[in-house]
Amino acid sequence: MDYLLLKKIIGERNRRTQTENDPETEEDDEKERALGKFLGRLYEEMENTDDGNSDSRRKGTGIKQILEDYVLIWSCGDGTTRATHGVDFILHPDTAKNVLETEFISERIIKIRVRGEQKISNFTQAYAPCNDSCSEEQKEDFFEKMADTMGTVTDREELIVMGNFNGRVGKRRTHRD
């Protein structure tokens, strides 16, 4: 395991900082700049850090340099409307330089391959469908794509899966409980 690379990953956080309006607005740009400044300060305190996000609300897929050479990579649907279930990575400049490949699998799954000091690492960011609000077909499609994505990683490479899997613990409550 490449611990220096893994040390840079701080996991997933649920971000709803962008507006719901279409198209993207100056307010979106201002929020992105504010987020970049905040993350810059946070990352300085935590050394070299990267982040994966579930519930990103951008359009389409893309790669964009943001404040201080951090790189935003997002997968948020087909680009015609703002995503409701998008995912993204915000990469430290040192990590961004070592990205070998980006796969935009769906609005719920994105994967990047990163060259580390000792091996290649595959980071998959996912946002699973909720049990209550999604059909069985949507859930099966998501988990099939996750299995296919994970199956492409060779034994010589590292696999790191992170995201929001909408897990529930405990007994399901009904209106009578």
From TrEMBL:
Q: Which domain of life is it from?
A: Eukaryota
Region feature Disordered, mapped onto this chain = 14-33
Q: Enumerate composition-biased segments (Acidic residues).
A: 21-30
This chain belongs to the protein called Uncharacterized protein LOC106013819
What organism, scientifically named, is this protein from? Aplysia californica (California sea hare)
* Primary gene name: LOC106013819
